[in-house]
Amino acid sequence: MGDRRRLAAAFLALLLPALPVQAQSWSTVQGPTPGPARVIGTTGLGCIAGAVELASEGPGYQVVRLSRNRNWGHPELIRFVQSFAARSGQDLWIGDLGQPRGGPMPYGHASHQAGIDVDIWLDLRRKPAMTRAARENISETSLVLRDQSAVDPARFTEAHARLIRQAAETPGVERIFVNHGIKRSLCAMHRGEPWLRLVRPWFGHDAHMHVRLRCPAGSPDCRPGPVIPAGDGCDAGLDWWMSEDARRPRPRPPGPRPQLPAACAAVLRAN
Ligand SMILES: [Zn+2]
């Protein structure tokens, strides 16, 4: 290694945040801790004991990218996915849930850490049963226009809206993230309907919805997300997503990097 490359490598090491190293240790644990399921912390900074695995396929669904080993979650999340898929009348692709013990991931998500998040793809085409290997390489197709102002009417149909509504109306669901362009179109199609309140605008999420459950019973250390304001969310707050400000990169808040709850250290170490 030349001097310049060595210097560059040292510089890069300085730039690397502590998180990926930590995330690496959570992503290499192959199985859950035994015992009752317990969510600890938040979905953005948390973990789970006693997680269970979602079967790789079942009525109405097939899990994609199983090699990531992110098809784990709280038993309530597993039950939600299975019953939702079975009554959806669709062939759903199920994306990431969480790791066997939750925790941060080395790539792909900031949340999904506490076993109560799942990505459900908004791909409603009929699908053949596919092998696990074939399911590794399926690509997502965006349903949103390039300028993200709305859905692409050639791709997004009332059936997509129905699926999102079905999820939002399922007891135990806390919120659903979709691209702000999808939310804008849902507002145009269904303004004032109460289920829209749970459908929150976010970046990305133009090909899948991200469903988050409420803190399950028996998890006193689970911390819920911020309270969702009253109303359908079809307001000026939604227009912000189209602004210059929304496109500016967010600086990390000052102060020390937030730490996982102390109880998660024991979850990571447990045999
Ligand atoms: Zn997600």
Please tell me about this protein's structure.
It is a single chain. With 271 residues, this protein is of the alpha+beta class. It has helices spanning 3-15, 19-28, 75-88, 158-168, 180-190, 236-239, 244-247, 263-269, and strands at residues 38-42, 45-49, 52-53, 57-58, 61-63, 72-73, 92-94, 117-121, 173-179, 199-202, 208-213. A hairpin with a 2-residue loop joins strand 1 and strand 2 (45-49). Mean pLDDT is 91; it is low at 1-21.
> In sequence order, what are the helices and strands, one letter per element?
HHEEEEEEHEEHEHEEHHH
The rounded Rg comes to 19 Å
Structural class: alpha+beta
Mean pLDDT: 91
Number of strands: 11
Oligomer: single chain
Q: What is the CA–CA distance across the termini?
A: 40 Å
Any low-confidence stretches, pLDDT <50, length ≥5?
A: 1-21
Strand % is 15-25%
Helicity range: 25-40%
Large-scale geometry: globular
Biggest β-sheet: strands ordered side by side in the sheet: 8-11-9-10
Bound molecules: zinc ion
Q: Mind summarizing the main beta sheet? A: 4 strands, mixed
Q: What's the total helix number?
A: 8
